[in-house]
Design brief:
Layout (H helix, E strand, L loop, with lengths): L4 E6 L5 E3 L13 H7 L1 E6 L3 E6 L4 E5 L6 H19 L19 E6 L2 E6 L5 H8 L21 H12 L9 E3 L1 H14 L3 H19 L2 H23 L14 H11 L4 H18 L8 H19 L8
Parallel strand pairs: 2-8
Antiparallel strand pairs: 1-5, 1-6, 3-4, 4-5, 6-7
Length: about 325
């Protein structure tokens, strides 16, 4: 018995093709553009989620548990986005800090039934995502400079087709990339491990804010965003471990300093990370009180690397954050 599934999707910030780029020789006519772009090149099925990857770079996620809100899907989309770009960094795609947080204005909603699209919603999404998606439909993809197209000798459609392909931003030199299926598969395997605990999905979804600020060079914001994640993580593992140790500090109005020292006493944190946490805590406090003027890239990077180590230690997944 078939039933309708809902998917939420996104296009990576960097223009992307799956499997191979688009070649004009594949297309018999302009109407076939949509079918080629929408072709499902990749699918991954786990106990918690499904991922579909389309030729034109659209990634769609379906969650298999009930009660999922748009916010839940956005957490999963952002977490998967980081896992994807981390995997791609291992395949010589270099720095991936061009990614941006996926918001309510970015996602594309789909309804599928037996691999057939029943419905999609793009009314409220941003211009870029809408432009990329409307590439699938001739009516939404008439080039801005259509007046230059030759109407003479009945070659309008041929010229329009050529224009669509050769002027798509994903096919222009140095503006696009072609990613292979094996790299996406590895990303899904890593994401499957991470998604066993929703707390790590949320952690990665929050981390993308720091990643975006890193790309913009806003190092104070990187440390501030990262510290919120670090602090929440420290409190969580503190309360998880404290009942096992008689020397644990009481749980009334704990400061981050007390939590770090408490975890140090429990030997729940590696010694080298404790020193890094104290350094970041001081920088963050100085930022709050406007006493720190120049946060360096190295300090911002350290704040993200600490989070990376937490994830690696707990899940055995190494999120490669390349700067």
């Amino acid at each position: 018995m078939s039933y309708t599934k809902k998917y939420f999707g996104f296009y990576p910030d960097k223009p992307t093709w799956l499997g191979s780029g688009l070649n004009i020789t594949e297309l018999s006519n302009l109407q076939s553009v949509g079918a080629v772009l929408a072709k499902q090149e990749f699918a991954y099925n786990s106990s918690n989620f499904e991922v579909i990857g389309c030729r034109d770079g659209l990634f769609l996620i379906h969650l298999k548990f009930s009660g999922c809100t748009v916010g839940t899907y956005l957490d999963y989309l952002n977490a998967f986005y980081i896992a994807l770009e981390s995997s791609l960094s291992q395949y010589n795609f270099g720095k991936f800090f061009n990614l941006k947080e996926i918001t309510i204005e970015d996602y594309i909603y789909h309804e599928y039934n037996e691999s057939k699209i029943l419905n999609y919603q793009i009314e409220n999404i941003n211009t870029r995502s809408k432009y990329l998606y409307l590439a699938r439909f001739l009516s939404g993809y008439i080039p801005v400079d259509f007046e230059k197209i030759d109407y003479i000798n009945n070659i309008f459609w041929k010229n329009l087709l050529t224009h669509v392909i050769t002027n798509d931003q994903r096919t222009l030199l140095k503006k696009g990339r072609i990613i292979q299926i094996e790299s996406i598969n590895q990303a899904c395997k890593n994401f499957e491990r991470l998604s066993q605990n929703y707390e790590y999905v949320q952690l990665l979804a929050q981390l993308i804010k720091a990643v975006e600020e890193m790309n913009l060079g806003n190092y104070e914001q990187v440390v501030s965003y990262s510290w919120l994640i670090i602090e929440a993580y420290l409190y969580r593992i503190y309360y998880t471990n404290k009942s096992r140790y008689s020397q644990a500090i009481g749980d009334e109005n704990l400061s981050s300093l007390e939590v770090i020292n408490g975890l140090k006493g429990m030997k729940a944190l590696p010694y080298e990370i404790v020193g890094e946490l104290h350094e970041l805590r001081k920088i963050r406090n100085q930022i709050i009180h406007s006493q720190y003027k120049d946060v360096t890239m190295a300090q911002a990077q350290l704040s993200i690397e600490v989070i990376r180590e937490f994830i690696k230690r707990d899940t055995a997944v190494d999120i490669r954050l390349m700067f």
